[in-house]
């Protein structure tokens, strides 16, 4: 029969590295001789706690893993997916670098223990690192833009990318200057139909939760510049036409070169009879605003009255054709 003599009670689970002393005792024979033999047996545990780390999202391409250390008697190493490099494949503190260009990218890394004393005994644990890229909006600042009242402003274009799948835009009035989305671009423009300042904000959306938002702010200052007018141009000499402006003011002062103001002086609309041909001007100024007096060139084409001469003999017929 065999008994475990060291340790005294070894019936519990064996953990780690344990040295057992086993004594073999023979049954006495007829000669009443008892024989005994002692054996030493080393036992190694083939199960160990193993932690590769918690799954995580990161914004960028580098991350440091802090896995559990192996106990003695084990080899440890990382099993890496495509696109992942590591500075020390056998270290539990692993500096991970993602070398790919696809985002987001889920990289599954395996932390592997292999027993040195129990061939074939392998313990593993996986960790998933999601590499994401930061959202971008270019240009990264909106700055200050000046626009003229009642004129189309020069368009501003912003482009989003990186980890952003869209943007939210706030701050624009219901009418007038606004924005439209064209692919991954935001185009700001339109007619400046109100004097004042527009403060707008563009914020990225759809980026990975590990990445901060990208935000661009800017201002559009709408003031009075040139005073636009509407009316026919060019026009023919001798004709009468109406010219008007949509810019609000307290009093409108009009002057005309090469024509006569028939009606409307002091209001936003005048009627002019053009008496002279050439590049004539309409001048307008407003009181009660900071708008600058503005001159507009009106091309007045001369009116032609053709004189037709012809020779005709007595008894002949002459036909005159109209001109346009």
Report mean pLDDT, rounded to a whole number. Answer: 85
* Terminal-residue CA separation: 135 Å
What structural class results from the helix and strand content?
A: mainly beta
What characterizes the major β-sheet?
Answer: 4 strands, mixed
Number of helices: 0
Low-confidence stretches: 9-16
Secondary-structure element order, N to C:
EEEEEEEEEEEEEEEEEEEEEEEEE
Question: Widest sheet: strand order?
Answer: 4-10-9-6
Provide a descriptive summary of the structure in words:
0% of the residues lie in helices and 50% in strands. It has strands at 2-6, 17-25, 36-44, 56-59, 62-66, 74-79, 84-86, 93-98, 105-115, 122-132, 135-138, 143-148, 156-162, 166-170, 178-182, 185-189, 196-205, 215-223, 235-236, 240-244, 251-257, 259-263, 269-274, 278-287, 294-301. The strands form seven sheets. The chain has a four-stranded mixed β-sheet with strand order 4-10-9-6, with no helix packed on it. Strands 11-13-16-15 form a four-stranded antiparallel β-sheet, with no helix packed on it. Residues 9-16 have low confidence and may be disordered. It is an all-beta fold. A hairpin with a 5-residue loop joins β22 (259-263) and β23. It contains no helices and 25 strands.
């Amino acid at each position: 029969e065999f008994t475990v003599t060291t340790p005294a009670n070894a019936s519990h689970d064996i953990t780690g590295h344990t040295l057992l002393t086993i004594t073999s005792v023979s049954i006495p024979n007829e000669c009443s001789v008892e024989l005994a033999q002692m054996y030493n047996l080393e036992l190694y545990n083939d199960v160990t706690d193993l932690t590769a780390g918690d799954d995580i999202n990161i914004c960028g391409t580098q991350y440091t893993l802090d896995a559990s250390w192996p106990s003695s008697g084990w080899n440890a190493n990382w099993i890496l997916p495509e696109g992942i490099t590591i500075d020390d494949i056998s270290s539990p503190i692993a500096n991970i670098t993602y070398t790919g260009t696809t985002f987001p990218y889920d990289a599954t890394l395996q932390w592997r223990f292999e027993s040195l004393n129990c061939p074939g005994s392998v313990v593993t644990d996986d960790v998933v690192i999601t590499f994401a890229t930061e959202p971008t909006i270019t240009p990264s600042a909106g700055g200050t833009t000046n626009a003229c009242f009642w004129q189309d402003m020069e368009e501003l274009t912003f482009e989003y990318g990186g980890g952003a799948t869209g943007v939210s835009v706030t701050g624009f009035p219901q009418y007038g200057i606004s924005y439209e989305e064209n692919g991954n671009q935001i185009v700001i423009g339109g007619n400046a139909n109100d004097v004042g300042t527009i403060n707008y904000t563009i914020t990225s959306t759809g980026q990975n939760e590990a990445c901060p938002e990208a935000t661009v702010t800017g201002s559009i200052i709408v003031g009075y510049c040139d005073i636009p007018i509407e009316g026919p141009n060019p026009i023919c000499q001798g004709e009468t036409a109406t010219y008007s402006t949509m810019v609000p003011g307290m009093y409108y002062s009009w002057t005309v070169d090469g024509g006569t103001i028939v009606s409307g002086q002091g209001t936003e609309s005048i009627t002019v009879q053009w008496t002279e041909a050439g590049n004539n001007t309409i001048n307008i100024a407003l009181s009660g605003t900071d708008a600058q007096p503005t001159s507009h060139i009106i091309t007045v084409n001369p009116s032609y009255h053709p004189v037709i001469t012809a020779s005709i003999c007595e008894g002949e017929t002459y036909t005159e054709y109209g001109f346009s």
